[in-house]
Design goal:
The chain is an alpha+beta fold. The chain has helices spanning 2-22, 29-54, 68-71, 96-99, 167-172, and strands at 77-81, 92-94, 109-111, 117-122, 136-141, 176-188, 200-207, 214-219, 228-234, 240-246, 266-273, 276-282, 289-294, 308-315, 325-338. 18% of the residues lie in helices and 32% in strands. β12 (276-282) and β13 form a beta hairpin.
């Protein structure tokens, strides 16, 4: 009996020892839960920082120490300024190569303190031709990019045509259809002169042989705090039509409730596809304003009609004080065509 009792006691002790030993592996599970939670807390903190970096200013890469060509691709443009250094009797042109190699003039064309490209044009000065009534400091698109083998006018590699033009013109041009986009602020408009001239400036165009499929205007009257945006569509050797996009073009317009103030940045997009012209005004925090023009009856889809973009300031005042002026600062500018 004693030996049986002793065996039973040993059996019970072994059973208890085995059960206690088998429960020990459960303890490592607790630190695994803590380790798994820590990375989730770090990810939640880091995500907002990445989003903040993406929202930095769109024009932060502009360098105020550089000439305009240091911040903008100007190899596809020439510029007209209201001087006559060459004695031709008309405004001087700075061609593509010189313009894209650091040209600037602190009277008319230079880099602003914030890196923008400034266009400034007084009322008085030389004009681009005897048929022109107003002065300008304005870029003219030059698709030849300095290659003087191509003619500057006519159907050539220097100009483009509408996609509705004859196929032969499309084949012989520098491209067809096109988009011009710009972000700018108008800094100053004229306040002297006749009522019909005050406050007007053209900031973008498509020019054809002798007419303009579009002239885009900014206008702020002297007694108004805000300016208007409108454009003219001129048919080929025919009528002219006006489209008011923001505010009114009237000489006695009241302050436009949704207008654009001087020094306020806005963007425009001018696009042609075939016989369709689309003009869009873009402002931060506001709905885009868009106007579409059907140019099917405008006469630009016939042979020989060539196009080029223009951008800058085309002063629309020749009756005010000589020293009165228009000025705009561009923060982005680009153009493209289908080839």
């Amino acid at each position: 009996m004693k030996s049986q009792t002793k065996l039973l006691s040993l059996f019970i002790l072994a059973f208890l020892f085995f059960n206690c030993s088998s429960s020990e592996p459960e303890t490592p599970e607790e630190p695994e839960i803590v380790i798994g939670e820590e990375p989730e807390e770090q990810e939640e903190v880091e995500e907002p920082e990445e989003e903040e970096e993406e929202e930095t200013g769109a024009f932060e890469d502009l360098d105020s120490s550089l000439p305009p060509s240091g911040n903008f691709d100007l190899a596809v443009w020439k510029i007209s300024i209201p001087t006559d250094i060459d004695g031709s009797g008309t405004a001087d042109d700075i061609k593509e190569d010189d313009l894209s190699s650091g040209y600037e003039d602190d009277r008319f064309f230079y880099t602003a303190e914030d890196g923008g490209m400034v266009f400034k044009c007084p009322n008085a000065g030389f004009k681009t031709s005897t048929n022109t009534s107003y002065t300008r400091v304005e870029l003219r698109e030059m698709l030849r990019r300095g290659n003087t083998d191509f003619n500057t006018t006519g159907i050539s590699r220097n100009n483009w045509v509408f996609g509705s033009a004859p196929q032969q013109d499309i084949d012989n041009s520098g491209g067809y259809d096109g988009v011009l986009t710009a972000t700018l602020a108008v800094n100053h408009v004229t306040t002297t002169g006749s009522t019909s001239h005050r406050g007007r400036v053209i900031v973008g165009q498509i020019h054809a042989n002798s007419d303009e499929p579009i002239r885009l205007y900014y206008r702020k009257l002297p007694n108004n705090e805000l300016g208007s945006i409108y454009f003219a569509h001129e048919e080929n050797n025919d009528d002219e039509f006006w489209y008011e996009m923001i505010g009114s073009r009237s000489n006695s317009a009241s302050n436009p409730t949704d207008g654009i103030a001087l020094d306020e940045k806005f963007s425009y997009r001018i696009e042609v596809v075939g016989n369709e012209l689309t003009v869009t005004i873009i402002r931060e925090g506001k709905e885009d304003v868009t106007q579409v023009v059907d140019m099917s009856d405008s006469g630009y889809d016939v042979g020989g009609q060539y196009m080029y973009f223009k951008a800058g300031v085309y002063n629309q005042n020749n009756s005010g004080d000589d020293e009165d002026f228009v000025q705009a600062t561009f923060y982005s500018l680009s153009q493209s065509h289908t080839n």
